[in-house]
Amino acid sequence: MRAEHWPKTAGYFASFLSLGMVTALIGPSLPWLAEQTRSQVEGISFLFLAHSWGYLLGSFFGGRLYDRVPGNPVVAGMLGLMILVLVLVPAIPALWLLTAAWFLVGIGGGSIDVGGNTLMVWLHGSRVGPYMNVLHFFFGFGAFVSPLIVAQTLIWTGGIRWTYWILALLLVPIAVWVARQPSPAARHERTDTPGGEPAVIAAPGREALLVFLIALLLALYVGAEVAFGGWIYSYALAQDLGSVASAAYLTSAFWGGLTAGRLLSIPLAARVRPRWIILGDLLGCILSVVVV
User: Fold this and answer.
1) Alpha-carbon dihedral sign for residues 60, 80, 230, 91
2) How many other CB atoms sit within 10 Å of the CB of residue 102?
3) Cα radius of gyration rounded to whole Å, the chain
4) d(CA 78, CA 65)
5) Burial status of residue 88 (CB atoms within 10 A of its CB: 0-12, 13-18, 19 or more)
6) 31, 47, 97, 284 - which has most CB atoms within 10 Å?
7) CA distance 229 to 248
């Protein structure tokens, strides 16, 4: 990697670390947010829907935004939006206001997700593969750390208020760092492969089918990931599988497994074709569902 690329790359890694921490926070927070807003856990599940819709809109409009303005200020601005909401959430007494707050968090998260992937490609071009794997590893690591912070604040304070404020504080230097870095130039043309050969362009119909299948796979995978990671904490408490702290550790274990898989994918992707990795992942998921 060129020396001038390190500061920007580190900023994108840290942004995805932040994204993972915030994404994994909602699940362990549900019982306390329900108590805070005098709601039932079933009713407060609307927070997942609001966050997902915000994420969808943030991804869609964020992608268009990065084509028109420098990307780093957008990422920093979205981090700033999440910081503001995290500070305010512990003081919100009404469910509809809390729903709106998590909708804004989703918008910020979706924009950062699209931005990190896009800007990393623009920065590293055809050599982006390993950096992209590490980028998503940091998301998983952030999601692994967040429930641990929840567990410790529960032990020391009996609530989750300080969890939100600690995460907000951790995001501040990341937002400042990203904002201070120059944005990479946009790349919209097809690039050659790393070996210098022109990239192979599939037939239009086949290419469209491939894009559709990849999008469908990602939709199913992300849906399962977010749903399981969000509800495992409440499920553990409802089934009386342990204390509130151990339920947070269980959530962390789930995200830790995801992180370990992403870490393993870094050397694996350099040696195994993507189709075989995806097939192995699908078979592993099917086997785990059957066993459970």
Assistant:
1) negative
2) 27
3) 20
4) 12
5) middle
6) 47
7) 11
The torsion angles phi and psi of 51, rounded to 5 degrees, stand at: -65, -40
Per-residue confidence (pLDDT) for residue 196, from 0 to 100: 43
Per-residue confidence (pLDDT) for residue 32, from 0 to 100: 85
Say if residues 147 and 38 touch (Cβ distance below 8 Å): no
Weakest mean pLDDT among 33-42, 82-91, 142-151: 33-42
Q: What is the mean pLDDT of the chain?
A: 83
- The answer on pLDDT for 118 being more than 90 is yes
pLDDT value of position 195: 45
Nearest of 49, 46, 48 to residue 26 by alpha carbon: 48
Q: Which residue do the tokens 């804004």 mark?
A: 104
**Among 1, 104, 112, residue whose Cα is nearest residue 47:** 104
DSSP class per residue in the chain:
--GGGHHHHHHHHHHHHHHHHHHTTHHHHHHHHHHHTT--HHHHTHHHHHHHHHHHHHHHHHHHHHTTS-HHHHHHHHHHHHHHHHHHGGG---HHHHHHHHHHHHHHHHHHHHHHHHHHHHHHGGG-HHHHHHHHHHHHHHHHHHHHHHHHHHHHHSSSHHHHHHHHHHHHHHHHHHHHSPPPPP--S----TTSSPPPPPPHHHHHHHHHHHHHHHHHHHHHHHHHHHHHHHHHHHTT-S-HHHHHHHHHHHHHHHHHHHHHHHHHTTTS-HHHHHHHHHHHHHHHHHH-
Task: Report pTM.
Answer: 0.80
Q: How far is residue 19's CA from residue 24's CA, in Å, rounded to a whole number?
A: 9
